[in-house]
Amino acid sequence: MKKQYLVVAVLSTLLLPNVCFTAEADVSGGVKLGARVVDDSDESAKYQEYRDLDDDILGKIWLDAFKGSYFFGLKGKNIGLDDQSYKLFGGKYGQFKYNFEYDETLHNYAFDAKTPYYGVGHDTLTYSGAVPAVANWTDFDFSVERKKYGGELEISLGSPFYFNIGVERQETNGVRPLVLGNFFPDAVEIPEPIDHTTDNFSIRAGYSSENYLVEIYGLLSSFDNENSYVSREDLSGFLPPDTMYFAGLAPDNDYEKLGLKFAWKHLPFNSALAAGASYSTLENDLKINPELLVANPAYTQTFSGDISYTNLSTTLSSRPAKGLNTKFYFRYLDKENDASAVSTNSDNTYEKFEYDKTNAGVEVGYRLPKKTKLTAGYDYADTNRNDRPEFAGTTDNSFSVNIRNSLLEFMSVKLQYQHLNRDYDTDSADLLNLDDPPDPNSDISVSDFDVNGKDMDEVKIGVEIYPTDNFDLGLEYTYTSNDYDTPDEAQPDGEIAGVRAREKDDRNAFYLDFLWRLPRQIRLSGFAGYEDREVESQIQNGASPYTQDVEDDFWTYGLTGKMPFLNNRLDLIVDWEYQKSDGESDFGIDSTLVDIGSVSDYTLQRLKAKVVYAFTDQMDIMIGYQYEKYKYKDFAYEGFMYDTTSLGIFPTLFFSGAYADPDYETNLGYVMVKYTF
Fold first, then answer.
1. How many CB atoms lie within 10 A of CB 432?
2. Can you tell me the mean pLDDT for 249-253?
3. What Å distances lie between residue 562 and 521, 529, 568, 573, 645, CA to CA?
4. pLDDT winner (highest mean) among 61-65, 429-433, 499-503
5. Do residues 398 and 454 touch, judged by C-beta distance below 8 A?
6. Of 478, 473, 480, 486, whose CA–CA distance to 420 is shortest?
7. Torsion over CA: 169, 175, 177, 178 (sign)
8. Residue 477 has pLDDT above 70, yes or no
9. Rounded to an integer, what is the distance from CA 434 to the centroid of its chain?
10. Under the phi-then-psi rule, with left for phi > 0, alpha for psi from -120 to 50, and beta for the rest, what region is 50?
């Protein structure tokens, strides 16, 4: 009953206009109140992954009130549900304004998951006696809920100067999947306890006029985790009794940021200059779990994190002549890592990652005759990475051109082309880690696709057609080709014993949409789309080359119709959508590829229908129905088992059932009354 009482309490706030404003105030708003019934026999967490769709009472409110220069507003949706949100705002124009917000967000990973351990939701997971059979495991839900609430106040008092202060708290609680174990002798999917709190405090002060803007701002953020570690008891039986595995969780940390903004408008050549600078730090102190240090005294005892970011940016936009506009921009980012070094033994110290990135570019647009606009641009980005030896630096040069023509009254056409060339700088001395003599089994080069050298070409063609006053049609096609450097091109000749690299990534995308306005205010709209992707990769260790090809095809289409009846007092609205993704992967040695099965295949169907009847000018009655069906298939989940002990394989794996059965078929019906004033 708690949710129902909350609905009534929130709806009662609609009386606020009568209390806060006199008869001269301009007040408008509305309320929706109803009930929902859901048939979800599968009880799927996928269906409710980010939404609360149980049987319940439904409520929504909105309110706007004005009197002179004063204003007040209130919004609330999904009242009383686990994904509810509210916002209250108001103020006096030119003087001050404020807002308060409350929001709940949920993430359901899996319902009816299983674990052999006791203590779900806590940082220590154990069992008693022998490892229990799956039938005797503990049932629980993988679900995380976040509550966010805060407020903001800004004061200007009719002057160009302003001051803004804001506070916010986020509370996150629940459990989510985590694999804990080093796969020798076992690995277990466990419930990670989530109990986080984040407190934010922000402040801004500045001067804003017709020509200038100057602002200084700051942010303080503190993250606190009630669980520094999670531990679980060994299930393999190969280790001494009561042996525990430990995993460190997100540590407490403090974030600070100080920044400056500047803008100067109405400069010569119709120009405007904007610039910004900021400096931020992220710090934490973490003590290594003492039980880990008993057997490993050479491990780092404590860790102090200290990362700083320096950002600089400037943009100059101009209109120096009729039909001509230009933009020049520059950005710089520097990440410095002054954290303490981490060692696992006397000879192995993990390196600290840091980088700097310089980005600059220019865009020029010009209006040509015959209602044609041409836009061209160049973008340069140079990134230098420390202690990522496979690609210590990359340089991107990107060129783009866009042309759009709307000479014909019934049609407009756009054509866009972009080319990107990425070059790289390999720190081969660090990469090879050359021994004397070199060890061929240890020299594995990882050519990660996000930093590997490549050439990217993308072509996009779009057409919008208006053959009649009541029909619109849009067509768009995009082709993208990523040609990555091959292993021989990416690495020094003859020095690499192993290579892992992506070689090709090609994509096609075609989309169509239309809107048809028929007589008697009947409207019909729809869309259709198709995408495909082909990726080729190579893994080579000595004389054993492995090849993997991945293909994915995606289709989607849908229709929406609206038909009025009874002199437009009754509306029938129907919406239908279909999605299908078909992925496959071939994997093999020496170019002999074997189809390993479906990869992330799914189909999704949605049907929504509702009837809206205007009972009076201020009251509508809605009756609706929704159908949704989802099917998923992936070779990794075929023949799913919670406990692989019976297979006699090593290591032994224990799963919770998270993500294993996301299929669902649901029916939902609701009735709502809407009242506006």
1. 20
2. 93
3. 8, 22, 11, 5, 57
4. 61-65
5. no
6. 480
7. positive
8. yes
9. 40
10. alpha
Locate the DSSP E strands across 371-521: 372-386, 393-405, 411-425, 444-447, 454-468, 471-484, 498-518
Peptide bond into 545 cis (omega under 30): no
Going from the C-alpha of 630 to that of each of 146, 212, 221, 479, the distances in angstroms are 26, 54, 40, 29
**Cα gap 132→654, rounded to integer Å:** 12
40-55 pLDDT per residue, tens: 988 899 999 999 999 9
pLDDT score of 486: 67
pTM confidence score? 0.86
Query: What's the CA gap between 83 and 50, in Å, rounded?
Result: 8
**Measured CA angle at 373 (ends 370, 378), to 5 deg:** 150
Stated as kind and residue range, the H or E segment containing 3 is: helix 2-11
- What are the tens digits of pLDDT across the range 10-40? 444 544 544 455 557 899 999 999 999 999 9
Angstrom distance (rounded) from CA 465 to CA 477: 15
- Token duo for residue 351: 């390196």
Query: Which of 9, 4, 13 lies closest to 80 in space, CA to CA?
Result: 4
Q: How far is Cα 397 from Cα 418, in angstroms, rounded to an integer?
A: 11
Total residues found in the chain within this entry = 677
- In angstroms, the CA 600 to CA 286 distance is 38
What tokens appear for 373 in the block? 């606009």
Dihedral class, residue 480 (left if φ above 0, else alpha if ψ from -120 to 50, else beta) = beta
Which amino acid is present at 190?
Answer: I
Phi, psi of 51 (to 5 degrees): -150, 155
